[in-house]
Amino acid sequence: MNKLSLYVAAIGGLLALASTAHARAAYDGSWDLVFVTQRGACDSSYNFTVNISNGIVTHPNLVKFRGYVARSGAVRASVTVPDKYASGSGRLSGTSGHGTWSGRAGQARCAGYWTARRN
Fold first, then answer.
1. What span, in angstroms and rounded, lies between the C-alpha atoms of 27 and 72?
2. pLDDT tens-digit profile of 78-112?
3. CA quadruple 33, 36, 42, 46: dihedral positive or negative?
4. What pTM did the predictor assign?
5. How far apart are CA 70 and CA 47, in angstroms?
6. What is the pLDDT of residue 62?
């Protein structure tokens, strides 16, 4: 009986790992983002593309960019470039997503919403 329990536990662990990897991989790939400013003196919109791999959001030209996607599709990200900072959160679902952001450009405070489309 101990061997059977061990096999069942091992199989259950492998299935849990596969399920987690599959859930994160559901958002893997290239995404186009549009950030729209609703309040403040920042540019009216920003457009760029990010890549998601195993729940980690990256941008090839932004060194201080951090982003994460949970299995549920919940997103949190922040970016810092000279004299500008922004952070946001939201949700991805299937091939699209949306959320809110806030930040600053110099001394100006800004906020708005963002949308995403899978490439």
1. 10
2. 999 888 899 999 999 999 999 999 999 888 899 99
3. positive
4. 0.76
5. 23
6. 78
Quick one: which of 96, 99, 51, 48 has its CA closest to 75? 99
Cα torsion angle, 57, 41, 107, 112, sign: negative
Ramachandran quadrant class, 6 (left: phi over 0; alpha: psi -120 to 50; beta: rest): alpha
* Spatial separation of the C-alpha atoms in residues 117 and 17, rounded to whole Å: 28
Mean pLDDT for all residues in the chain: 82
Residue type, 86: A
3-class SS of residue 42: coil
13: three-class secondary structure by DSSP: helix
